[in-house]
């Protein structure tokens, strides 16, 4: 029996994930009160049920439910059942945009700002995210891409052996990404900021990318970085890690880090991993280094 609990931020795509799982043959129930999970599991696990894959959607609409959820999950695990918790997430600015597009109010605020509801919800869901067996970030995913991620994660035998790699460029002047697993500093490379015609461009522009990669130390760095990452990722999978965030930083997160992050993303995308790219600080400072 494969028993999975789907939770996460409102607007991140939990209902969409449940629909995909239903198409994959899961018996799906949305917003089941956690107090009923034990009884529901008992029914599902009975030989005559005919159910072998179950997904439950649990979210903030149920009120203060997560302490009870953890209690029920721990009880089932203590009885020998395999229970997986999957957290669906997205960046706050994307969640705000989605709420505005659908003209829905956040479930935690009746008359306040959506951003305040998101802030409060993150605080409430912090423990659930920490306990998650797998986190799916839908920030940069189209619907078809999310469907592919779900397909990769929920493979036939229920093993969570798919690895999602996120490559993030950033500027050290704005701080290191809090969720980074691996951090690399490329401030040793010549800086396009000091080349007049390149200053207002970014690492997404061919002129800047060519400038950065013309240097031998940049090319050597990429060879060594890719070699190390390709060694680490299979070993992370063996240890049960499902999400890796690789952060590459320069001073302002606009030129060098963007170029190298794009190069790493392109190289890893040719492998068997699911790879995403984020340029965290690209637009923060129009004149940043």
Automatic annotation (TrEMBL):
<keyword id="KW-0067">ATP-binding</keyword>
<dbReference type="GO" id="GO:0005524">
    <property type="term" value="F:ATP binding"/>
</dbReference>
<protein>
    <submittedName>
        <fullName>RNase adapter RapZ</fullName>
    </submittedName>
</protein>
<dbReference type="GO" id="GO:0005525">
    <property type="term" value="F:GTP binding"/>
</dbReference>
<feature type="binding site">
    <location>
        <begin position="8"/>
        <end position="15"/>
    </location>
    <ligand>
        <name>ATP</name>
    </ligand>
</feature>
<feature type="domain" description="RapZ C-terminal">
    <location>
        <begin position="164"/>
        <end position="283"/>
    </location>
</feature>
<dbReference type="Pfam" id="PF03668">
    <property type="entry name" value="RapZ-like_N"/>
</dbReference>
<feature type="binding site">
    <location>
        <begin position="59"/>
        <end position="62"/>
    </location>
    <ligand>
        <name>GTP</name>
    </ligand>
</feature>
<feature type="domain" description="RapZ-like N-terminal">
    <location>
        <begin position="1"/>
        <end position="157"/>
    </location>
</feature>
<keyword id="KW-0547">Nucleotide-binding</keyword>
<dbReference type="Pfam" id="PF22740">
    <property type="entry name" value="PapZ_C"/>
</dbReference>
<dbReference type="InterPro" id="IPR005337">
    <property type="entry name" value="RapZ-like"/>
</dbReference>
<dbReference type="InterPro" id="IPR027417">
    <property type="entry name" value="P-loop_NTPase"/>
</dbReference>
<keyword id="KW-0342">GTP-binding</keyword>
<dbReference type="InterPro" id="IPR053931">
    <property type="entry name" value="RapZ_C"/>
</dbReference>
<dbReference type="InterPro" id="IPR053930">
    <property type="entry name" value="RapZ-like_N"/>
</dbReference>
